[in-house]
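This follows on from our talk about sequence and fold. Please put the record directly below this note.
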Amino acid sequence: RRLYLDTHALVCLLEANGFTTQQSEVIVSALVKIMSTNLDMIYKDMVTKVQQEIALQQVMSHIGGVKKDMIILEKSEFSALRSENEKIKLELQQIKKQVMDEITKVRADNKLNLNLEKSRVKELHAQQDRALTQTDRKIDTEVADLKTMLESHKLDNIKYLAGSVFTCLTVALGFYRLWI
């Protein structure tokens, strides 16, 4: 914290440029005081290496705590996602069973109707075949729609999982950025 300045050389320089000895000494004395005050203010704002190491250790411990919290949060989010996925799977299985029961009922009804119609009128045989084909197409369309819906739910779950992971990562990086 010392100011290294050749005051005698500065006084001589000022005298060489037209100042008196007394004026030169007063100017140099004022400059030395100003520079000392400025250096004191600068050193007040500076941190020692020990203080810096302590602050770094504190920041690192906070980061470690945040990492632990993030791991706990991540595990709880994953378990919540798993339970939600299990619920959705059960719901889909129930819906699939209901659809299959309905399909079975529709097919049974259609077969019964076809047998009755065949026995009554043979001329309507061609129309009944078309009706059966249309019903099968509707059933296939419904099954395809259900498969599409199942895939959509799977994709939504994957998106939700990816969003959660990226959100956690963003929060972790945000904390990391704040502390560094």
